[in-house]
Amino acid sequence: GAVVSQHPSWVICKSGTSVKIECRSLDFQATTMFWYRQFPKQSLMLMATSNEGSKATYEQGVEKDKFLINHASLTLSTLTVTSAHPEDSSFYICSATASGRTDTQYFGPGTRLTVL
Amino acid sequence: RKEVEQDPGPFNVPEGATVAFNCTYSNSASQSFFWYRQDCRKEPKLLMSVYSSGNEDGRFTAQLNRASQYISLLIRDSKLSDSATYLCVVRGTSGTYKYIFGTGTRLKVLA
Predict the structure, then answer these.
(1) Between residues 69 and 88 of chain B, which touch chain A (CB distance below 8 Å)?
(2) A104 vs B contacts (CB less than 8 Å)
(3) What is the pLDDT of residues B16-25, one digit of tens each?
(4) Cβ–Cβ < 8 Å for A78, A57
């Protein structure tokens, strides 16, 4: 149980385009989803916290207009990187917590974004 | 000062060795503590939660020292498959479920 999927697993795009990444909880309802970014040889950095039906809470230094987060249902959150640039190339990972089990985050397999 | 600090390593140890990692955290009100394992280009996977009384899972032992604000992980009888990055994770204070990750400690177990 508690499986989280992400799609796509990797994407290569041209500079200036927008990329959407989906995060789904497959067998549970995710009250909260988190989006992280990890650069090479660095740890995971939380970008934003997303609650179903409400606006995401962004961490300091993360541009909300550049990283659009939508959490329209209890099983799906999307992250859209708008006007992507090479410096946005990174490993994006989502996680989700289940209702009544907020202490445990279940991680998706990650999406590797390369912006040319 | 970083909220969660770890020695980045790498720790290179022979098979069968015992190795210990430490992690310190800055917020004394932190609620929960975990060790995650991350393989190259993969997502983190929960290795074990860390409880105040200390806990063991097979070859892995985790300890928490709240007074000194550090967490440790001991791996006995290291296997080649233990080679990975070990992430210390601290959950935020009450009312938030945010995880704060350390930078990770790289372990290489050598044949």
Answers:
(1) 87
(2) 46
(3) 999 999 999 9
(4) no
